[in-house]
Specification:
By secondary structure, the chain is α/β, with parallel strands linked by helices. It has helices at about 15-20, 45-55, 65-75, 115-125, 160-185, 215-225, 290-295, and strands spanning about 1-5, 25-30, 35, 40-45, 60, 80-85, 100-105, 130-135, 145-150, 230-235, 235-245, 260, 265-270, 275-280, 290. A hairpin with a 2-residue loop joins strand 10 and strand 11.
């Protein structure tokens, strides 16, 4: 089948590679090169880099506007596949490929429609994560679903780790759906259940409320790591939490936000049992082991986060 593929971040690359191995990719649509690093060097998106390695034509555009629509229409593709492109497909582009567009989404629809499904699922403490391939329609992530699959994700996985696992499973699921569409055997069904929304995370979503129970604190840390990042305050300055885990059962009881450090660990009190913080980044400094940071704080007396 002749496809046009749209995607930008690394989580879209496994699907591009899987489809390129089985179908003709007329072109790959991705967002323009972006400035990265301290020197702000213009760098191709992960999807652009993968497409170039595969010898595929690349269309770089920040918006799927009239110009992009004309370029895609000229490809005469039978089906469009989109994975985390970072822009909205509207008419007439939505109907430009003969069979429209399908989308790989990183949730079990209709739960977590929107830009940050994995992050919101982790923050919400969902016991089950998964992927869905659905027919793209004008309404947000509301199209009929061709296939869904639950994916096993470790209990300590942060959002980036979970996304990597979902991307691999999603790639094979998408390839199966495209093969079914090509063969004329694929069937899509309306979504069932009450939708929930997963808007893009903001910096405020990373703020830790130490009065919450440990499971909620740890769930938020997992969901916002690495972006926008978990953070708290100490004496009015932001402190980033880069590594954390539930404290062992023999950890001391601490009031919410109160710190207790040892030579090897730093514990922070929550509304229930403590969180073990393993890596931090104080304001204006580089990332460091929490125990090293604590040794520099040992003469400060009682230390409480969130103040």
């Amino acid at each position: 089948m002749r496809l046009v593929f749209a995607g930008t971040p690394a989580v879209a690359v496994p699907t591009l590679r899987a489809l390129a191995a089985q179908h003709e990719i007329a072109a790959v649509v991705t967002r323009p090169d972006a400035p990265l690093g301290r020197r702000r060097v213009l760098t191709p998106s992960p999807v652009a880099a993968a497409a170039e390695q595969l010898g595929l034509r690349v269309i770089k555009t920040a918006r799927l506007d009239d110009e992009a629509t004309a370029q895609i229409a000229a490809l005469d593709a039978e089906l469009g596949v989109i994975v985390a492109y970072g822009g909205i497909v509207r008419e007439p582009l939505l109907s430009t490929p003969e069979k429209g567009w399908i989308n790989l989404h990183f949730s079990l629809l209709p739960r977590w429609r929107g830009a940050a499904p994995v992050q919101r699922a982790l923050i919400g403490g969902d016991a089950e994560l998964g992927v869905a391939v659905f027919q793209l329609v004008p309404a947000l992530d509301a199209g009929d679903v061709f296939a869904m699959r639950s994916v096993a994700v470790p209990d300590d996985a942060t959002a980036d780790v979970a996304l990597d696992l979902l991307a691999e499973d999603g790639a094979s699921l998408t390839a199966d759906v495209v093969a079914g569409i090509a063969a004329g055997t694929a069937q899509a069904h309306p979504q069932e259940g009450e939708p929930t929304l997963a808007p893009k995370l903001t910096l405020d979503d990373g703020a830790i409320d130490w009065s919450a129970p440990l499971d909620e604190v740890y769930a938020r840390y997992r969901g916002v790591t690495p972006e926008p990042g978990a953070h708290t305050t100490l004496a009015g300055a932001r402190l980033k939490i880069l590594g954390a885990a539930p404290a062992p059962v023999d950890a001391p009881h601490l009031d919410p936000g109160l710190l207790h450090g040892t030579k090897t660990a730093v514990f922070v009190g929550t509304g229930t049992t403590p969180l073990a913080v393993t890596r931090v980044q104080p304001a204006g400094k580089g990332a460091m082991d929490a125990a090293d940071w604590w040794r520099g704080m040992r003469d400060a007396g009682t230390v409480r986060l969130g103040s």
